[in-house]
């Protein structure tokens, strides 16, 4: 590696060094002909990387783990997980690697992580590879979530490998370079607990406290404090998903972070027409992870986290269970408070409004929107115009006009703040039909549509001329939508 690159990029190896029980040293497969498809230049600068170097042949090889500093210690991480409710004791990074941690301009550590970098000892029957489409999906959706102010892992780059990947057809391969506060998951703690190594579990919990929830360290029971902190950040996160109509699609316990960041954008999607039962994942045949189920699934996952921490919370099992249950009882209140506060903001309602007024207003509106299968994003954005007296765009999406007119009268009487509404109701999201258009083009070698979609969703609240197509709902011809994990 060049002296310039060495002076600007230093991967720490804290996880690899401190948790050898959870880390298998491994190297990314060599890419035949790596080509940079997307680079998140602002994020690169934030991390202290030189974007010009990252665009160079040597920088591109660094991004996919083929040209690392000598001191780097890439590892595949071990974790367990409940997948669609079924426990798998040994999952782990089957096609991913943690290159190491870097300290950004703010001094905070972030993981640099690869997806699609080849088979690891955790790969089971998978090929360890990824195709261009799913990697660009994660890049676009994660950056959209960041712009929507929702905690998320982020995407630094997508690099084409020059290798074909066999799925239903042959597809061009790619590697995603992902950035996260860490990759500690509920599944990481499940794995540590399953080893019956209390020292490992305690070290992992101490690491999570130090890195993500330092306030827990000062509590009389820091491990109970850790549980409460994770419950809190996850309750708020899932409420934020619900407020923008995001459906994660694969809420397994190995896809729930301890940090409270959204992770793993596989079979995910934003809702088109408002449907609480919306499912977009091709593998979620029973609808376990449907839109309306996400809050309950998160609570279930957090109960599995509590089980993993129980021996640290109290040495007496009955007391540990009682303390954990008490902590979990706070989840629904925290979720509801975040969701209801967010919904009031979406309606531009004044702070301090009586719940007895606001709650029926929210419930009645959602019933009308669901009955009409109105486009979720477009409808709430159009309410900003309705607050300014232009009611027809919103009115045109509702079937029961008499009921909606009565609702509008009640709402207008509260003097909704249109400007405040526009700051929380996005006009641009990664709409499913546009995403498919962009990914299909990229698969054929044209990244232009993906770049334009990314530019739109990276500034989701500001309406801009020339971007009308990015604000429009899917055409009626765009039928039932299904997404795939990409493995």
Task: Quote the beta fraction.
Answer: 5-15%
Q: What average pLDDT do the residues reach?
A: 95
- Total strand segments: 11
Gyration radius (Cα, Å) is 23 Å
Q: Strands of the largest sheet, in order across it?
A: 2-8-9-7-6
Order of helices and strands: HHEEHHHEEEEEHEEHHHEEHHHHHHHHHH
Cα distance spanning the termini: 32 Å
Q: Largest sheet at a glance?
A: 5 strands, antiparallel
Helix content: 40-55%
Low-confidence stretches: 1-7
Overall outline:
globular
Structural class: alpha+beta
The number of helical elements comes to 19
Defining traits:
about 475 residues, alpha+beta, five-stranded antiparallel sheet, 19 helices, globular
Notes on the structure:
With 487 residues, the chain is of the alpha+beta class. Among the domains are: 3-180, no CATH class; 349-416, no CATH class. Helix content is 44%, strand content 12%. It is built from 19 helices and eleven strands. It has helices spanning 3-8, 14-18, 41-46, 51-55, 57-63, 132-147, 186-194, 198-212, 222-244, 294-313, 317-328, 330-346, 355-372, 376-387, 392-395, 401-412, 418-422, 432-443, 448-457; strands spanning 23-25, 35-39, 75-77, 81-83, 86-88, 96-103, 109-115, 154-166, 170-180, 246-247, 269-270. A hairpin with a 2-residue loop joins strand 4 (81-83) and strand 5 (86-88). It starts with a helix and ends in a 30-residue tail after the last helix.
């Amino acid at each position: 590696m060049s002296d310039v690159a060495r002076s600007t990029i230093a991967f720490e190896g804290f996880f690899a060094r401190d948790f050898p029980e959870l880390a298998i040293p491994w190297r990314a497969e060599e890419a035949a002909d790596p080509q940079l498809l997307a680079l998140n230049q602002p994020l690169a600068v934030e991390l202290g990387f030189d974007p010009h170097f990252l665009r160079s042949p040597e920088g591109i090889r660094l991004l996919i783990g083929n040209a690392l500093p000598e001191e780097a210690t890439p590892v595949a991480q071990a974790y367990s997980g409940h997948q669609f409710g079924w426990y798998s004791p040994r999952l782990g990074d089957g096609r991913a690697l943690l290159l190491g941690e870097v300290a950004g301009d703010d001094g905070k550590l972030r993981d640099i992580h690869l997806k699609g970098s080849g088979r690891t000892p955790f790969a089971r029957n998978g090929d360890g590879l990824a195709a261009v489409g799913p990697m660009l999906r994660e890049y676009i959706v994660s950056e959209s979530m960041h712009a929507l102010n929702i905690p998320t892992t982020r995407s630094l780059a997508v690099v084409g490998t020059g290798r074909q990947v066999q799925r239903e057809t042959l597809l061009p391969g790619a590697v995603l370079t992902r950035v996260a506060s860490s990759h500690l998951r509920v599944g990481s703690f499940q794995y540590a607990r399953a080893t019956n190594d209390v020292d490992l579990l305690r070290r992992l919990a101490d690491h999570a406290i130090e890195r993500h929830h330092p306030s827990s360290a000062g509590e009389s029971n820091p491990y109970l404090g850790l549980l409460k902190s994770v419950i809190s950040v996850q309750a708020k996160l899932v409420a934020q998903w619900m407020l923008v109509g995001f459906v994660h699609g694969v809420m397994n316990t190995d896809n729930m972070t301890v940090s409270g960041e959204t992770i793993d954008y596989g079979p995910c999607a934003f809702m088109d027409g408002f449907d609480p039962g919306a499912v977009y994942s091709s593998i979620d045949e029973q609808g376990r992870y449907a839109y309306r189920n996400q809050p309950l699934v998160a609570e279930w996952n957090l109960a599995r986290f509590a089980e993993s921490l129980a021996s640290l919370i109290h040495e007496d099992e009955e007391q540990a269970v009682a303390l954990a249950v008490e902590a979990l009882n706070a989840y629904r209140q925290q979720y509801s408070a975040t969701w209801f506060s967010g919904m009031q903001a979406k309606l531009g309602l004044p702070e301090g409004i009586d719940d007895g007024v606001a709650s029926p207003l929210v419930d009645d509106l959602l019933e009308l929107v669901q009955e009409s299968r109105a486009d979720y994003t477009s409808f709430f954005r159009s309410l900003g115009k309705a607050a300014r007296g232009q009611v027809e765009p919103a009115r045109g999406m509702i079937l029961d006009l008499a009921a909606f007119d009565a609702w509008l009268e009640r709402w207008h009487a509260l003097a909704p703040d249109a400007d405040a509404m526009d700051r929380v109701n996005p006009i641009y999201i990664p709409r499913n039909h546009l995403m498919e258009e962009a990914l299909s083009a990229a698969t054929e070698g044209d990244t232009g549509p993906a770049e334009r979609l990314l530019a739109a969703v990276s500034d989701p609240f500001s309406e801009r001329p020339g971007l009308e197509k990015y604000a429009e709902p899917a055409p009626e011809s765009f039928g039932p939508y299904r997404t795939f994990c990409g493995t």
